Amino acid sequence: MALDLLMIVRETVFFILAVPLIFFSIECLAGLRKGRVAASRIFLRKDHLILSIRGLLLASVFSIPASISLFLWSVYRLEVYRLLAAAFFILFVFFIFISISRLRIVLKGARRL
Questions:
Q1: Distance between CA 95 and CA 76 in Å, rounded?
Q2: HSE-up (13 A, CA, CB side) for residue 96
Q3: How many CA atoms lie within 13 A of 57 on its CB side?
Q4: Does the pLDDT value for residue 11 go beyond 80?
Q5: What is the pLDDT of residues 14-42, one digit of tens each?
Q6: At residue 92, does pLDDT exceed 90?
């Protein structure tokens, strides 16, 4: 089985983003358990919450062309579709990471990034 450079780069980026994403998500879920505190912080930090939601929106926007290009690659086997799919999936994961990071800021009540 041959490993190509694109696969190594893509999986490395996914791993680098996924490890902190897991910890940030657990921290956000723990913060959301305290309903009263979470609601007040969301109200006070609505600018970061809007950025978090915008990150989720951008992630979902990038997931559509990623899925389409992956489908086209499976049909036509052109490398350009595989490269586009990898790039769009990296952007997808990156914007989810940004979104969870912003939500973490909201729930922690931090003043600065």
A1: 28
A2: 18
A3: 6
A4: yes
A5: 999 999 999 999 998 888 887 777 777 77
A6: yes
- What six digits make up the tokens of 82? 């595989």
Helix (H) or strand (E) holding 41: helix 35-44
CA triplet 91, 97, 99: central angle to 5 degrees? 105
- Total-model pTM: 0.84
111 token code pair: 């003043």
Residue owning tokens 């919450």: 49
Count of C-beta atoms within a 10 Å radius of residue 48 = 20
- DSSP conformation letters of 9-40: HHHHHHHHHHHHHHHHHHHHHHHHHSHHHHHH
**How far is 85 from 7, CA to CA, in rounded Å?**
11
For residues 109 and 101, give the distance between their C-alpha atoms in angstroms, rounded to a whole number.
12
